[in-house]
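Me: I hope this is not a bother. Any chance you could explain this protein sequence and its structure tokens? It all follows right here:
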Amino acid sequence: MSENREQAVNDILDDEHQKRWYVVNTYAGHENRVKENLERRVESMGIQDYLFRVLVAEEPEIEIKNGKQVEKMKNMFPGYVFVEMRMTDEAWYVVRNTPGVTGFIGSSGGGAKPFPVSPDEMESILRRMGQSDKKVVVDFAVGDTVRILNGPFSGMEGRISSMNDQTQIASVMTLLFGRETPTDINYNDLQKVTD
């Protein structure tokens, strides 16, 4: 066997043994049911060594109802579930044949295994959900004025009243209906306003 071919075979084997995130396509509105089905199958089929986490990417969304802020969870990617797994033949088969799953994103079909989500992209999603292990280094502190970059308050400015480094969420005092209102915003979605 040539050296290049041997390296290619080793890369494929290494790929199969690495824990990576993949995107699974589901029927719209069935994301949480698919998540429950996959978690049940992991237990019943004893594949904890291949399937690790199943995630429906949701983030809190603030709605104003009758003049009051109401927080609800909003699916960031309707019709998709993220699965952290080792892409073995067995794990791939189990996920593909789970009720509600219509396939993997990044698979060209014909038995070709899908491509994983890039680590940077997945880190960004986990951070938005408050589940990231990596901490964001920020250049703002309590009392600073910041601009909100994403979400329903995008473009608004406010003053930071408190910061939680554990969750990486800052409470930002924004002007809403003529009143200063505290709004919890992810560090990633804030930018310090310089004079």
Notes: The chain has two domains: 3-128, 145-192. Residues 145-192 form a domain with the SH3 type barrels. fold (CATH 2.30.30.30).
